[in-house]
Amino acid sequence: MASDNEARVAVYIDFDNILISRYDQLHGRGAFHSDKVRTLPVDGRESKVRTRFGEATVDLGAIIDYASSYGSIVLSRAYADWSVPAHAAYREQLLARAVDLVQLFPTTRALKNGADIRLAVDVVEDLFRLDDVSHVVIVAGDSDYIALAQRAKRLGKFVVGIGVAGSTSKSLAAACDEFADYDALPGVERVVVQDETDADTSEPAAAEEAAPAAKSRRRRRKSGGSSGDEEAAPELSPDDAATGLLERALRILTQKTDDEWLHANVVKEQMKRMDPVFNEKSLGHKSFSDFVGARDALVELREDGQARLLRLKQAG
To answer: Where is this region: Disordered (predicted)?
Structure first.
């Protein structure tokens, strides 16, 4: 249960915006539409476009985890036409993080679904209805959200923007209290897009043989959840999942605070925000300090008076 003085966060995701921005960032401006990614079947055969779609997977877990570092997430919504196969591939991942899926049907032949207007109306309505919300996180890079960010700030809210580099309006970033680049979020691994020249000029049979190799080179996310590929990642044991959760929490807090050493209770609180199911006792540890101590290859633990401090071990 959140304390009375704890920050309370509302997250709003313009899913179409962030998905297109990520794809175009990796494969060139306009590539999402020219590749007709919207109509890519979820369970279709391997192809060049499917490989490119896999490389451009958006790690929504990393976004939600980062948003939770500002406080307890009390509301999270993602806006898109969820009947579109490219969007539907993410439904499991979003539902696993308790994100409400707001269905928007296209209203024009240009496939505009009015997400910016619907999202803005919902934010303003929520802020008047839920006056205890202290932070608003807008996941988009569209300049249409400038007025929304300004209005939320005038209502006394701390506004955080998250967008993809190269597709984010500088004016939107300036209108927010803070703006984070998606690529710089803890847990998001950098993607190396393979040179497709050879695949394009080879015989079809050779291209089909190369597809599994290309698939194996796709980015693997650290934050968990479904990636949108038809192949699910191997399920981690509870112990390994808890270790990954600890590492992600430490990376997020270190990046946000610039503190080398972090209080154990702050780290545990962040872990609980990211995964409310986490409980060190269910993993066989008497206390959180015992849980951390069992991971001494990953984390250093030291005492400063009554305080227990943690930090990630330095590489090398």
So the answer is: 195-240
